[in-house]
From TrEMBL:
Residues 756-770 have a biased composition (Polar residues). ATP binds at G465, Q466, T467, G468, A469, G470, K471, T472. GO terms for biological process: microtubule-based movement. Residues 771-780 have a biased composition (Basic residues). One of its GO terms (cellular component) is kinesin complex. This is Kinesin-like protein.
Length: 780
């Protein structure tokens, strides 16, 4: 027993030690658990605090920015969206309007602008869409986070509850164990049982410990998970904080902009206000100044009014006196009129007598002038001979034959030298025109003759020379550079216009041609009709051509028409106009009739412009048939002309007018105090020298006739007949007929009697001079 007792004792001691160890273990475990639970509690506490903090932070953020800001932002974006939508609508409306207005103008800048706007709009819409999507995402995220947070809270609560329960359970068990230990202490006999129980209990405790350990582990995992979640949430929070900061910065920027715009607007308003004030002030000051001026004016007007009153008084006085004068005026007027009438009558009488005296003097002067003119003509000789040398032309050809054979005297414009067959022959005429002389210069020498026609003189201008020497050029000229014909008529027109105050003039023209001694009218309806020259049946001895048309001309256009008509008639009558014209004489007869309105004096002058046939000696070169006949006729008529001029210049009693149609027709224009000009045309070409020589000899002889009656006779008689024959077939009549002494009678042309081929008896002459005197006396 003792042994068993000891054994039991030992057992008891071991058990006691074991118990102690267990107790210690338990205590340590308890301590451990306690500290662990404390730790856990601390952790839970801090988690709770953190959670609270987080919740607070979330709620704060939500209240401050988070939800509200996002919402605000969303609202802002929605408003912006709405505004943009409206803007877009307005833009679309505008666009439609613009399109309607400018349908055809697709390429204009508005379209580009519109497309730009549309693009901008669509981009803005896209942006709004994106923002909306982002907003929805954010909202979803916030929702998720809130849900998760609630979940975590729930889980946290659960775990806390579980923990509390566990603690409760553990503390209960601890109490139980302590109680058991105490009871065991009090009942050592039951130690075995107790030990067994303890053993059982310690196994159970061990199990519980394990459980609580696993539980602890699970809780720790849970905490780790919670931490993870918390971390994620923190990250999300950071992101949302960042977004919030960005949004805040944007808002600040917008606000700053708004502030700036507002400030600007305020400034502008301020400036406008200032300007308005300034303008008002200016207007006010101006108005003041004007007002002042008006006041001053008013004052001036007032003073004027004061000074005007006495003036008015004097004016009234004057008016009254004037009224009195007006009453007396008719009487005074009648008186004055009577005396004025008397004075005027007297003056008119005086003027009349002066006029009569002047008219008498004028008529006397007219007579004197005519006398002087006649004297001048007598002194100068009323037949003059000019020479004109044409320039070398292309038609002359080239080579030595065309060399110039004519030279001039630099000191004397009446002398010309011709180099013929190596010898120089000189000629003196009244004037010589060199090749360079213009149509104008030639006409200047002729115009005095032309104007004398207006005074009632008859004038003949002949162009003489071989074919191609320039006769037609001198008489007709070219369209651009007209000759004597047109210039003479133009001069007559202007002269007649100048005298229109006192005189009535009519100018008329006829054109005729003499071919083979046949006279034809170039202005007639039947130009081929032969015309006859007849004596006037009134016994005046004057000649006339029945059927010769005469046209009245008043302008250059009229002349040109007449010339054209004449040319056409001449051309239709022949096959070769050039040839024909060189074989016939062309005459332009201009008649100028005038009436002096104051004296009743009538004048009639005739201007005969004759383009003679070519003077070349065809007959000597063996021509036959019609050509020979033509040549004979030309020679005959040119000889007759030479005879007549010769007879006239040598003042013979008999002038052989009737020897040719030409001289017969021009009889009254060659005789009496008529004037004649012979323009001898020559070619300067070497090949033409023999014809040139002939023409110049003809010219010189015609001119040299007038040398004085006695010497003339002897000189002319001494002409070598051979040379004379060489020149032309012209044989001047013998100079046996006596020359009429003194001047030819002065008479208006229509009164000049035809001398015919009989010389007038002295009785006839004296009766004629008596009639002239009578005429002059009656005409003033
Ligand atoms: P005609 O009538 O004597 O036969 P034209 O008058 O027909 O001669 O003249 C012959 C040519 O010479 C024409 O071509 C004309 O233009 C020219 N001619 C004549 N005289 C002159 C001049 N003074 N200046 C220039 N050309 C002239
Ligand atoms: Mg000609």
């Amino acid at each position: 027993v003792m042994a068993s007792m000891a054994h039991l004792q030992e057992e008891k001691l071991r058990l006691q030690e074991e118990l102690l160890g267990l107790q210690e273990k338990l205590a340590a475990q308890e301590n451990d658990e306690l500290s662990h639970s404390l730790q856990l509690q601390g952790q839970v506490e801090t988690l709770k605090a953190k959670l609270l903090e987080q919740a607070q932070e979330i709620s704060r953020l939500r209240s401050e920015l988070g939800g509200t800001d996002t919402e605000k932002h969303r609202d802002l974006l929605a408003a912006e969206n709405e505004r943009l939508r409206q803007e877009m609508k307005a833009c679309e409306g505008e666009l439609r309007e613009l399109r309607r207005q400018q349908e055809p103008c697709w390429d204009c800048t508005n379209l580009q602008e519109n497309t730009g706007l549309q693009e901008q709009l669509s981009q803005l819409q896209r942006e709004a869409e994106e923002s909306r999507a982002k907003l929805a995402e954010l909202e979803l995220e916030v929702q998720q986070k809130t849900n998760r947070l609630a979940e975590v809270e729930l889980r946290l609560k659960d775990s806390l509850a579980e923990r509390a329960e566990e603690e409760e359970r553990l503390s209960r068990r601890l109490r139980d164990s302590q109680e058991t230990i105490a009871s065991l202490k009090s009942q050592p006999q039951q130690i075995k049982y107790i030990i067994k129980t303890v053993e059982v209990e310690s196994a159970k405790a061990k199990q519980a410990l394990c459980e609580s350990q696993s539980r602890n582990q699970y809780l720790q995992e849970q905490v780790g998970m919670q931490r993870q979640v918390l971390k994620e949430m923190e990250q999300q929070l950071q992101i949302s904080q960042k977004t919030a900061a960005q949004l805040r910065a944007q808002i600040m920027m917008y606000e700053a902009e708004l502030e700036r715009a507002h400030g600007q607007m305020l400034e502008e308003m301020q400036a406008m206000e200032e300007e308005k004030n300034r303008a008002i002030e200016e207007a006010f000051s101006r108005a003041q100044v004007e007002m002042k001026a008006v006041h001053e004016n008013l004052a001036g007007v007032r003073t004027n009014l004061l000074t005007l009153q006495p003036a008015l008084r004097t004016l009234t006085h004057d008016y009254n006196s004037l009224k009195r004068q007006v009453r007396d005026f008719p009487l005074l007027l009648q008186e004055t009129l009577r005396s004025a009438r008397a004075e005027i009558g007297q003056a008119i009488e005086e003027v009349h007598s002066t006029n009569r005296e002047l008219l008498r003097k004028y008529r006397r002067e007219l007579q004197l002038r005519k006398k002087c003119h006649n004297e001048l003509v007598r002194l100068k000789g009323n037949i003059r001979v000019f020479g004109r040398v044409r320039p070398i032309t292309k038609e002359d050809g080239e080579g030595p034959e065309v060399a110039n054979a004519v030279t001039f005297d630099t000191d004397n414009d009446a002398v010309l030298h011709l180099l013929h067959k190596g010898k120089q022959v000189s000629f003196e005429l009244d004037k010589v025109f060199p090749p360079q002389a213009s149509q104008e210069e030639v006409f200047q020498e002729v115009q005095a003759l032309v104007t004398s026609c207006i005074d009632g003189y008859n004038v003949c201008i002949f162009a003489y020379g071989q074919t191609g020497a320039g006769k037609t050029y001198t008489m007709e000229g070219t369209a651009a550079n007209p000759g004597i014909n047109q210039r003479a008529l133009q001069l007559l027109f202007s002269e007649v216009r100048g005298k229109a105050a006192d005189w009535d003039y009519t100018i008329s023209v006829s054109a005729a041609e003499i071919y083979n001694e046949t006279l034809r009218d170039l202005l007639g309806k039947e130009p081929q009709e032969k015309l006859e020259i007849k004596l006037c049946p009134d016994g005046s001895g004057q000649l006339y051509v029945p059927g010769l048309n005469e046209f009245r001309v008043q302008s250059v256009e009229d002349i040109n028409k007449v010339f054209e008509f004449g040319h056409i008639n001449r051309a239709t009558e022949c096959t070769n106009l050039n040839e024909h014209s060189s074989r016939s004489h062309a005459l332009l007869i201009v008649t100028v009739r005038g009436l002096d309105r104051s004296t009743g004096l009538r004048t009639a002058g005739k201007l005969n412009l004759v383009d003679l046939a070519g003077s070349e000696r065809v007959g000597r070169s063996g021509a036959e048939g019609s050509r020979l006949r033509e040549a004979q006729h030309i020679n005959k008529s040119l000889s007759a002309l030479g005879d007549v001029i010769y007879a006239l210049r040598s003042r013979q009693g008999h002038v052989p007018f009737r020897n040719s149609k030409l001289t017969y027709l021009l009889q009254d224009s060659l005789s009496g105090d008529s004037k004649t000009l012979m323009m001898v045309q020559v070619s300067p070409a070497e090949k033409n020298t023999s014809e040139t020589l002939c023409s110049l000899k003809f010219a010189e002889r015609v001119r040299s006739v007038e040398l004085g009656p006695v010497s003339r006779k002897t000189e002319l008689a001494s002409w070598p007949s051979q040379e004379h024959l060489e020149v032309t077939e012209w044989s001047p009549v013998p100079f046996l007929v006596p020359v009429i002494p003194g001047n030819p009678p002065v008479l208006p042309p229509h009164e000049v009697p035809s001398r015919g081929h009989t010389s007038p008896s002295p009785g006839q002459l004296s009766s004629r001079t008596a009639s002239i005197r009578r005429k002059l006396q009656t005409s003033g």
